[in-house]
Amino acid sequence: GVKLLLNGLCSNTTVKSLDLKGNNLRIAGAEALGKLLRQNQSIRSLILEWNSLGVWEEGFSFFCQGLAANSFLQRLDLRNNQINHQGAGELAMALKRNASLQELDLRWNNIGLLGGRALLNCLHSNKTLKKLELAGNNVPSDILKAVEQALDHNQDRQTILSETHSRTRVLSNEVLSLRNEKAKQFLDLMDTIDKQREEIARSSRMSTARVSQLQEALDEQHSIMNSLKAKLQMTEAALALSEQKVHNLGELLSAMKQEQTSVAERHLKELQQQKQEGADREGKLSRELSAVSEKNLLLRNQVDELEKKCKVQQDQLFQVKQDLTNTTAELKLRAVQAEERLEVEKRKFKQSLEDMESLRLKEVDRMTQHVEASERALQERIQRLEAMRIALEEELSQVRAAALTERGQAEEELIKVRNQTRLEEQQRLEHLQEKLRLMTESRDEAQNCYLRQKQVVGEVQAKANQLSLHADGLRRQIEELQQDLNIKEQEKVTEVNKVKVELQEQIGHLQAERTAQEGLREKIAALERQLKALSSNHREALLDKEGEISVLLERLRMREAEISRIREEEAQRASFLQNAIMAYVQGSPLAPLSARK
């Protein structure tokens, strides 16, 4: 039944603990247990108390082979199984190859001195066993103490290894977190830089669009001013033509007046001559006077026509003045509207520039704060890693000191053991010398009593032979003890060398971790340099954009100055034209006639 059960458990993956206490397992059961230990990968605890497995040597050796091949079992209970020193040797050979068993209970068996030595020897190569129970096995106390020391060494080694593994995991996690955070910070920084570049490009596009709009508005204003200038030139040309016509009419009027005055003088002279000549010429003079009066009427009619024409010219001039005032008013209105539009555009542009500047300052402040926070976090982490490194170095120094103290204790124990063995050897030698002295005395007594006690000679010889055999046995025991001492010394030397090698490996691992930390520091410094370079490039780009904005503002100021200068020139020209027209109208000879009419 046990064989069928164990064969079924070979492929099981859920059972963690198996208790077969007191089931009288035999050879088949032991072989099935060996097969189970070879194939099963889930059982962690196996209890085989009261099964007498040690009686069946072949089955127990097969069980030990399965235990050597297993790498998952952690607890094994073999109490009261009648395991002798040969079974303990098989078990020790299995423990040398096993790397997972942590607890082994061998109480109340028949292991003895040789089995205890075999188990002690296997502990030098097995580094995972933490607990070994050997009570009730007739194992000497010194072997039990050595087993306890080896188990303590294994526990210390396991604790040191677990601590180093945990620290390496913590450091690796910290390094990974630092790498991830640095990658995230770098990506965030690149995103912010890209966003700032996009914002700068968008603002530059907006500024160029606004500048182009302003340029178009200025071009429109220039075209309007050019059209106004053309209209003004046309009005000036028309005004000049009208002035020329008025001047011609004035000349005609002056010529007519001169002719009229000359005719009147001539008529007066003729009248005086006619008066002087006599009355006979009065008819002739009266006819001539009537002719002159007709001519005078004609001349008056011509003067009336000329006055009408002058009035028409004055009306045209007045219309031209009204057109000129209307055009000047329109020019002023358009100039005011252009100024208002320009002021609105300027305010909008200034507001956008102020908004862009505030956004840029906020973004720069946020970036600087973010960079400072990241630098502080990195410095704190570096300090924490440095503190951890210092703590590891202190722990390493403590471990070295503990190793040195353990080495000193081991040497002191070795010296004590040597002294004890020497004292024991001296006591045994003294005992043997005493026995030899007694033997010599008895031999002397036997020789003296040889004649009297022939019958006792055989008995004395037998006793002498027994004593010699006992002495030989004692000598062999002394040689075995000396060999054990030599073996213990070699084992101590090998253990110390192994501890040295393990400490050197730990030191190498720590140095490798230190080099990895230095590489991380170098990477952090490189990232900081990249951040500085990116910030300097960003600042240079901002300075370039600010220079371009200042150049555009300077151009706007120059354009505004040109517009104001053109406005002043146009106002001066309009005032000059108005003054000239008013002066011409007031100074012309038609002004009093028109005023009288």
From TrEMBL:
InterPro entries: Centro_Cilium_Assembly, Leu-rich_rpt, LRR_dom_sf
Gene3D superfamilies, sorted: Ribonuclease Inhibitor
Keywords annotated in UniProt: Coiled coil, Cytoplasm, Cytoskeleton
Coiled coil segments of this chain: 211-544
SUPFAM superfamilies reported in the protein's UniProt record: RNI-like
Short name of one Pfam family: LRR_6
GO terms under cellular component: centrosome; plasma membrane
Subcellular compartments: Cytoplasm, Cytoskeleton, Microtubule organizing center, Centrosome
Protein name: Leucine-rich repeat-containing protein 45
Protein source organism: Tinamus guttatus (White-throated tinamou)
